[in-house]
């Protein structure tokens, strides 16, 4: 059983199917599932009259949010993780093909960049439609963690973002790491703690802070940053970055900033930014 677990990555292919040089990767499918789950939960909350937004609001914002995830995630990766390479090869920022000419989609996405992209998309959307920005992102925040789990499953199937070398029985062999050594399956740790556990915290709280807009978002941002900060201790730092500040990885630096930002959102929520109103009034 242990041997099966340790060799599990070698039994999985990142490609769902191929037609010629065109391949559909499991990672892309996981993104689609994640987006669909967030959208479905947003509609569930609307149907239960837990939020004041209409179906049209959510339908329109879903498009904005997807753009925010894609562009924010990609630009975040470029800026935070490999700026010098992309400055020398700018076409690689937008090219969905690898250097061999095979279609791979955009290789390299940053969660932190994607989160910033969605927040900016929400800000622009609410300004355009004269809606409450913090109320909108609070409506979405409780659904995000469980969807995030699918993104990390995609990383796991890809054999990327693996952890550091370990002797622990939970360790696995990742061929993409080069050397045959057991490594922490940190993608699964993240999917569990930053996804399932954080969802178990967030979802029951989804109706607790009506009127204190920003609080739920702050709890999510802080919670994600908190869990990932500690998981980064078993995650392999990016080879071209290593430790960027003392013995902290880039992920930890960004997560520390997230925790501070989360506390700011919570503080704003608890001084009642925005007004409490009957959430059924605009259904």
Could you explain the architecture of this structure?
By secondary structure, the chain is mostly helical. The chain has a domain at 2-14 and 24-97 and 105-204. Helices cover 55% and strands 6% of the residues. The chain is built from ten helices and six strands, in the order αββααααααββααββα. The strands form three sheets. The protein has a two-stranded antiparallel ribbon. A hairpin with a 2-residue loop joins β5 (243-245) and β6 (248-249). α3 (55-81) packs antiparallel against α5, α7 packs antiparallel against α8 (186-202) and α9 (215-231) packs antiparallel against α10. Mean pLDDT is 86; it is low at 274-283.
Measured between the Cα atoms of the first and last residue, the distance is: 53 Å
Total beta strand runs: 6
- What's the overall average pLDDT, rounded? 86
Portion of residues within helices: 55-70%
Rg, Å, rounded? 20 Å
How does the helix and strand content classify structurally?
A: mainly alpha
Task: Give the overall form.
Answer: globular
The major sheet is characterized as: 2 strands, antiparallel
Strand content: 5-15%
| Element-level helix/strand string | HEEHHHHHHEEHHEEH
Across the major sheet, the strand order is 1-2
Figure out the total of helices.
Answer: 10
Low-confidence stretches: 274-283
